[in-house]
Amino acid sequence: MIRTELTAGLAEAVRLSQPEDAIDAMREAKKGLLDFTAASFAGREEKGIQKLLHLVEEEGGTPLVPVIGQGKKAAPLQSALLNGFIAHALDFDDVHSDVRGHPSAVILPALIASAAARESDERLLGAYIVGVEVMARLGESIGSLHYEKGWHNTGTLGAIAAACAVGYAEELTQEELEKAIGFAATQSAGMRVQFGTEMKPLHAGLAAQSGLLAVKLAQSDVGGTRTALDGEKGFFGLYGDVDKAQTTLLSHWGEPWRIVKPGLWFKIYPFCSAAHHAADAIRQLISQEAISADNTERIEVVFPPGGDAALTARSPKTGEEGRFSVEYVIALALHGQKLIAEHFNSDPIPNHMHAAMRHIQRVYDNRIQPASQAVPKGRFTIVRAFLSDGRICEARVDCPKGAPGNGLSKEDVKEKLKSALPSDVQKAAHIIGAIERADMKEFLSHLD
User: Fold this and answer.
1) Is a pLDDT exceeding 50 seen at residue 300?
2) What is 273-397's CATH topology?
């Protein structure tokens, strides 16, 4: 029997949350904020940003919120769109295995817009924790078919998570938050066919903007349903699994906080996390077995069935498409190229890389037992190289570097930020210091 209290229950759980009392959650929130900032500054020169800025400047508005790395400010809704795009521009921002998507690139731009516009930042970190909790639980509750059908969870789940995060920060009433959840849910969108284009990071920006707009609509007393998540015609009935949501969405709220366990995955490579296992494996083979493009005849990349669902490009034409291609990642490594942002831009992929990619084949094996510590759960990648001297060598990775269980230290994330700001050491130091002190007002002052 379908129950009808999911929306009200989620709103109540958000409103009654006390994440600021959880030392471990606040620690991880600071680390997540640091990584978000690093990914954003790393992507600040992507071409799509200037296209969006041009649209925003044509439209006008009151410039209240810093646009990360641009030396400019924008109106709150515009800034949420821009900063979401910037954070996700390189696919260098964090992921969460429960979300099967990117929480911080949606939640934090909405919260930054809210805090800067209101000049009130006291609940920003706590609201971030709440937003991650909501997005992770939505991801777990929606069921795997949602992603497999072609939805992009960052966009479809992000708007609701952003609305809940901003709703917590701005202390919405129960009625307002129930309506805000509905306003966000009705804007939920994002298709995986956009992977490898500028629309993919725009999903994060649109979700951030939709979440913030949802709160503004609720605060303006615009009419809307208070049960948008419930029933066969509600969010879970339309997008996923309403029965699963009834048992999963609100169970053991914040015990522990999802930002702590399983935790955020902070990336060391600027491409889709589904290719990180293979990246670690091919680098291991290059280091230990001295394989290269010259002595390798062909490569097999072994996944569990469906383990490469996010890797939509088998023969990418540009580096941007190559962010979602395990073939391109392996070809780059075999040719001695570093797996850095300059190889994953909109430039055409050279012919010799195309030739190398034709010798890389995906294989699926449901007989291989996933490791208990695998991230995401049930996933692994084996890279098997067939060498010209007759040898066959392979490397298996279940939990790549950066993922929970093999994560980056706080110092590692600091270095990621410093690497994104090589010519502005002082700015990096100011941002690091502000986050460590939880001084969000100073943090916001160093973003543009």
Assistant:
1) yes
2) 60s Ribosomal Protein L30; Chain: A; (3.30.1330)
